[in-house]
Amino acid sequence: MTRRWRLxxxxxxxxxxxxxxxxxxxxxxxxxxxxxxxxxxxSPTVVKIVSSLPRTxxxxxxxxxxxxGINMAIxxxxxxxxxxxxxxxxxxxxxASKGSWAAEAEENNAKRAVADPDVMVYIGPYNxxxxxxxxxxxxQADLLMISPTNTWPGLTKEGMGDANEPGIYRPSGRINxxxxxxxxxxxxxxxxxxAKEMEIESVYIIDDGEVxxxxxxxxxxxxxxxxxxxxxxxxxxxxxAQEFRSLMTKISAEGPDLVYFGGTTQSxxxxxxxxxxxxxxxxxxxxxxxxxxxxxxxxxxxxxxxDRCFLTFGGxxxxxxxxxGKEFVDRYQEKHGSMPEAxxxxxxxxxxxxxxxx
Length: 358
Hints:
The protein is an alpha/beta fold and 358 residues long. It is 40% helix and 16% strand.
């Protein structure tokens, strides 16, 4: 039995203890695999933790705070976990040409982690689509994988994604993947219920065609059916396009009360907001947590969002945290001189889960 599998078998106890410490949900949606007791071999003095996140492109402001959260957890532990010295490496899964995560970069990071026997924990990735690529690779190596941001249900929940999920991510038959965030089946339903509370009667749905964006848009659409909201249309955009004026002309003619965008800042959430205003669409705009970052406001222009843009997020905003969560935010501000973005606290928790497991 490998050292990695012994560690992967311990994450559930650590997650159960830590995931509620700063207002995060539990990881009870993941069924842990039991690791046999014992195992031989000497223990190394160094254990490496790596993260795989988009460190190039507009997501970098968000991922900067995620990396800061990881580092804070390690620093607070004195750079150690039990008898082990912790080394942390910040890896990029984005490319300059794409400006966001890239399949080849995420695959390379996963293979790089597997090739280094001292790497025991892989924090990430940021995007659910990226997790589909790295999860099977890391699973075959029994390498513990903890995401602070993945929300696609199919990564862990049967019947909530594609027909072959989540088994396709577990070729070894064991479970090595967990996360400390709620999933999009919950967020989509809450978004539809919120739209109903705002007396929305009709909506036009757009998505970016990616795993996360298309998935949450579909789940929002299902929620609209439950809440008697008329879906006037649903289509995917090409995130490589520079603008979406023709689509906005089409939507304007339909006259919806709400436009829902399933996607991220990097897949043109801000441009959607700008083009809505330019087309004279007076409907509200609702976006998911993939747009919950300062970069979205900058891309859209604050003047295009005031009083018309609404956002869902599976957690508590940094400035609304209480208890242990507020303690983290206060320490973050003292150390970095700024407010963390939404997922920094989840990254901090993911690192604490890793340290407890080690």
